[in-house]
Design a protein that fits this description.
Elements: E1 11-15, E2 22-24, E3 29-35, E4 38-42, E5 53-58, E6 61-67, H1 73-77, E7 87-93, E8 96-104, E9 108-111, E10 117-125
Length: 134
């Protein structure tokens, strides 16, 4: 397996509010972060001298940051405040994909003092399906 950079993302798609129209918005994304944590239950008995744990539920969250584009990414996220739909989100990089059905809970638009118009959209897993890399 070769090492690679974060350059040259193949795809970053998010459903619009219909839930049936995946739109590739990677050109509007300036940076992102996502995580796939697992819950942990500590089960250490008093007979142990080291921690003992069980893995619990899986999760998936993402924060997308981008440049305002009324013709593309804005069409995807403009309905976040007025709809309660899960949006399929697909990340593909170096031929590896991660997909989840997420609720996006906010669509924050910022106009900086120097004139940039940017946005941020945080999402969290919504359907109970464990996110897996393929």
């Amino acid at each position: 397996m070769a090492k690679s950079t974060g350059l040259g993302w193949t795809t970053l798609q998010v459903d619009d509010s219909t839930g049936t129209n995946l739109i590739d918005i990677r050109n509007d994304i300036t940076n992102l972060s996502f995580s796939t944590p697992r819950g942990i239950q500590e089960t250490t008995g008093i007979d142990k001298s080291a921690m003992e744990r069980l893995l619990l539920l899986a999760d998936f969250s993402i924060t997308l940051n981008g440049v305002f584009n009324a013709a593309l990414s804005h069409t995807v996220f403009a309905t976040v405040p007025s709809t309660s739909v899960q949006r399929t989100t697909v990340i593909v990089v170096n031929a590896k994909s991660l997909q989840g059905n997420l609720y996006y809970s906010d669509y924050q638009i910022t106009r900086s003092a120097t004139g940039e118009l940017t946005w941020q959209a945080p999402g969290a897993l919504g359907d109970g399906t464990t996110p897996t890399w393929s």
